[in-house]
Amino acid sequence: MSRLAWPIVLTQLAWVGMLTTDTAMIGRLGAEALAGATLSLMIFFLAYVICFGIVTATASLASQAYGARQPRRVRRITRQGWWVTIALTAPMLIVLAFTSQILSLMGQPPETLPHASAYIGTLMWSLPLATAFTVLRNFVSALGRPRPALWVMLSGVPLNALLDYGLIFGNFGLPRLELVGAGLATTIINIAMFAALLAIAVFRKPFSRYAILGRFWRPDWPQFRQIFRIGLPIAGNHLMVAGFFIGAVFVVGSFGSEAIAAHMIAIQLPHISIMIPMGLSQAATVRVGHAVGRRNADAAYRAGWIATAMTLCFMTMMSVVVMLVPEVFVKLFIDAGRPESTAVINLAVSFLFLAAFFQVADGLQEVMSGALRGLNDTVVPMFIAGLSYWGVGLATGVWLAFSYGLQGVGLWLGFIFGLSCAAILLTWRFFQFFKDRHLPSIQTPT
Predict the structure, then answer these.
(1) Res 445: pLDDT
(2) Which listed residue, 148, 179, 433, 435, has the most CB atoms within 10 A of its CB?
(3) Could you tell me the residue range of the domain that residue 373 belongs to?
(4) In a domain, 441, yes or no
């Protein structure tokens, strides 16, 4: 599990490292620019979560095919994953073009809308490449060789930082484009990363043996439908989680741009720490999928429990870290010398204190979801997510925010309730399968 997980974990950290770099540099443009970029990023992230969730099905399906020694099916799953990418991202780009109007209808602060429009105008074009990259990353991980994706992502982090620095602030002889430059840098780097990993998959062994570009134009409708059948509930699950956090951003928006900026800064540390459970979750999906392909129930559930134990140890440690260094972390994302920064810093520190209490539950729900995906169990986890995040978490957070006047703090208390509920229910679900030694069918679609 460790050999498979650490490259995936570092790949996840590299991905969030690029977003964190963007946030840190955009924060130097002021609270309004950061708030506007945050709002447009939330709309973009919703689109990405839907696309990412559906193509995530290729990870479990390709892993099961690899475990069952069906190389032709691995190739077909990857090829159809790209077909799904095209079908998904084309309409999403049309929706993203109207981000400013969507935010206006949602009653977001008018002063943030020009900044939101500037950022999304160039950021939106990274969506197709980021989704296609996910399909490629699932392919190499399903073969038990996730390191090429890691090296590509690690290369992208410093390149993204340099390009951000040049295009946002007008350094290295580049034009000063501010938020337009931030989105453009992200898009350019996503194009480069996809091209690099595709070259590795096509020309290097053992990946080249699968000839993933062979007959790309040839449809495989049963496999295409199966990706949607498995992936739509995964996307629904991710959308429940993302919508939970993103919905909170829009509620926070009613408390002003300072509250939005504080929320965006504070959420960075939990967002970074959850990348480790996300990596372990993907490793659990692959390991459980391999065991399912071999029809080995003991190995499948052992992989799930090992990933869970590793997650609990790490997230407990991160809870301690969050409580020890909140102010130091917050000041990385905003210019403390600006007069308006003091209120943002104080509010962000209070949010981070609450984050310490939901870190473990957040990690547990993530890794349990991954283990269940390896068993092709995606529908019930989606309903658990809806109940936990919206029925318990967001409802409680909004109630505390408005009825008790706790505002952003009330919403963060809702995070604690929602994530804890999800962690308990998903663990119970996996335990029930464990007792029955359940294994799903992996028959090749006809």
Answers:
(1) 47
(2) 179
(3) 2-436
(4) no
